[in-house]
Design brief:
Elements lengths: L6 H18 L2 H11 L11 H29 L3 H27 L4 H25 L1
Helix pairs in contact: 1-3, 1-5, 3-4, 3-5, 4-5
């Protein structure tokens, strides 16, 4: 089996994923409750540039993982890439990300709304990345 990876689609999905984070955690969207629930002070310093580089690399790995899983699912089940991308995204979200965030939330006694902000962000990035990877290959 040969992996079908479209690096342009992966790059686009990575940029889109970062854009989702910028919008998702902006003050008018979920930024205010996120900052309050995550215990950021009102005058917290802006993150160092390395934080944004780490977020970009993490998003790239996140999207690459979805692209690899999509290729494997498509080849294994003989289904189109878009269907495979949604199937892979669903499995990654429900089977990996939600339980991971739930465990962290329980250990840290995280407020439920903060948990929902995090898993909602992941779901949004996965859906948009699945559309991009599924349509562009």
């Amino acid at each position: 089996m040969e992996l079908q990876l479209n690096w342009v689609a992966i790059a686009i999905a990575t940029v889109v994923g970062m854009g989702v984070g910028v919008v998702w955690f902006a003050k008018p969207v979920f930024g205010r409750p996120w900052r309050r629930l995550a215990s950021f002070g009102p005058n917290a310093d802006a993150p160092a540039p390395i934080v944004y580089i780490a977020a970009l690399l993490g998003t790239a790995v996140f999207v690459l993982t979805l692209a690899v899983a999509t290729s494997v699912v498509s080849a294994a089940f003989g289904i189109p890439l878009l269907a495979a991308a949604f199937a892979a995204a669903g499995v990654l979200w429900l089977g990996v990300l939600v339980p991971r965030h739930a465990a962290i939330a329980l250990f840290q006694d995280m407020p439920r709304p903060l948990f929902l902000i995090y898993i909602g962000h992941d779901a949004t990035v996965l859906v948009l990345a699945a559309v991009i990877i599924g349509l562009l290959g």
